Structures
1.
Amino acid sequence: MTDVTPARIFEVATGFMAAKHLFVANEVGLFEKLAKGPATLDELTERIGIPRRTTRIVVDAMVALGFVERQGDRYQNGPVADSFLSGRAPTDLRLLLRYFNRLLYPTWMKLEEAVRTGQTPSQQFQFTEEDQRLFSEGVEAFSAGQAQALAANYDFSRHRSVLDLGGGTGSFLIAVLSQHSGLDGTLFELPGAAAVARQRLVGSPFAGRIRVEEGDFFKTSIPGGHDAIIVANVIHVFSSERNLELLRRIREFVSDGSRLLLVDLWTDPTHTQPLFAALMAGAFLLRSGEGDVYSEEEVRAWLKTTGWRPLERKPLAGPASLIVAEKG
Ligand SMILES: C[S@@+](CC[C@H](N)C(=O)[O-])C[C@H]1O[C@@H](n2cnc3c(N)ncnc32)[C@H](O)[C@@H]1O
């Protein structure tokens, strides 16, 4: 007799229900409303302004998943929801959940087709203005911990000027420049994302230290004069061939001794660890039509092929890590 049960299948197969319940709880403002204080179902229903019956379904799902606690007839945020979803704490993952719910989740309807055919409807970062904001702000929330960890754990004192290629909203540059007063930075982005970054920088204390340049790093010149180049969560957007091309192009535009800081969900050689990366491979495939996760070994091989000298790998926040290389 074995102890094999189908429990794991049920657990994983209902994962989409857990995710969607969480997204909806976030969308209706459940955690923000509970941040005002514990509430009975009637009080919560009134605070949110949706039917009592459906409030009960969503809040009880959150209790079952461990995000909300129930004491007697009162509900309150648990520690994780209170720290990351209530809107009160410095780390705010509400925008990540909004991005997952409104943009990412619908694209997953195409995963079967993509897997069967190897073809994906390539979106290549063509967004409406509203979707661009959802995407840029969602990715910023996704990578906020990485940005803080990079600023704290990599020694920027040897650098004078940082270029962030595909730098999103500028969140990595802001994190780095806020900890290193002698640095200035350039954000290089496609026009839609560059517009979000410019708006984000208006009135910020970093506006004078960060230039925003629009372009396509496969087509236009990459801005020169920088000695550290951040490439964060960009390699996973592209195929191996295009990544080789990108690494070659970056090398052409920077001087000897410049450092390349590659931040991503680098995996083990089998692409199965970390689990988060193995799952996100589907999202990367669907986002650009060619994305994937890559192992440290693959990246080191590309770096050598394109004339970069790999130096080290450092852990960052959660499953993300940093690979550092130098132009020799
Ligand atoms: C997943 S996001 C990462 C954003 C940011 N680096 C971060 O980690 O938060 C990838 C970014 O690459 C930018 N990007 C994609 N293709 C690009 C290209 N050809 N030239 C410049 N930027 C590009 C996208 O606009 C997007 O903001």
2.
Amino acid sequence: MKALVTTGSIGPGLELGEVDPPQPASGEALVELTATSLNRGEVRHLAEEEPGTVLGWDVVGTVAQHAADGSGPPVGTRVVGLVGGRGWAEQVAVPTHALAAIPDDVPDAAAAVLPIAGLTAWRALEMGGLPLGARVLVTGAAGGVGRLAIQLASAAGAAVTAVIGRPERRTGLVQLGASEVVVGIDAATGSFDLILESVGGESLRRASELLAPEGTLVTYGRSSGEDGAIDPYWFGGHSGAHIEGLLVFTEVDRRRLGTVQLEKMLTLISSGRLDPQVTRTRPWSDPMPLVQALLDREVDGKAVLTVNP
Ligand SMILES: NC(=O)c1ccc[n+]([C@@H]2O[C@H](COP(=O)([O-])OP(=O)(O)OC[C@H]3O[C@@H](n4cnc5c(N)ncnc54)[C@H](OP(=O)(O)O)[C@@H]3O)[C@@H](O)[C@H]2O)c1
């Protein structure tokens, strides 16, 4: 079968190649891929991957083979799911606990943003408990996860401060539900009940100082590539507050709520209450312009690859 394989340090980075089809485990359905989205974590270190590696976490397609244990949607169902790799292939084995049927009125591209970006935003907000009227700070707010987090938090009644890296990234964030948009973490003032932090380094350190007593900071990324350094005596000024790490794969495997959460977000998209923010699509046969745009911070939302028959 065809798959997008890494080319290592020589070559374009990703190209279509031939690989063996997957052998699904008993709790996995075999899905024929129609779309996937690109995530920073997948493409950040492309040149360092072993040549011939199949990456890919977001899977949209049609069930070609029902899971052997009887779980999950039947053959022919249009689905979206999360895998821990090998998703950029014509056929993907997807655990049914992280697989959901897509409503007819939700396009493939819209569903493709949900496994990584959607489930990360959803879980990060859940971790904070999101009390009524909460003040929420989102860093990396113009990115794929950030744009979904702004919408989900504001829909839950939170006042959301969106932190962006550059003024030109401001466009559209207030319309998504941000109460205020600030350029750079130093421009954020006040204290926050919940902080979603994905830039790392100085952003993480500064964000930790903005945490309200009893508040929660969820750290899930390091887009800056900088190491974070939080003062070991930080807790002295933030009694009862805590910092939690989030890795979406672990959370989905551990809690077995992937299907339910994907279904909820699909319903929100279907009813027009969640905008997936797909701003770029491209055939998977020529992915590198989109990969480069993502690495260059030029994608205002999510980039999606479509798989042509
Ligand atoms: N732990 C997990 O399970 C998990 C799950 C999903 C994502 N993540 C991580 O979370 C982060 C956000 O994911 P995403 O999909 O939203 O990424 P994205 O779409 O690429 O957005 C990244 C955002 O970070 C900002 N940023 C600030 N400094 C940056 C720098 N030096 N280099 C690159 N970006 C910088 C960008 O700001 P500008 O708007 O100014 O460009 C951009 O809005 C990534 O680091 C990703 O790897 C982790």
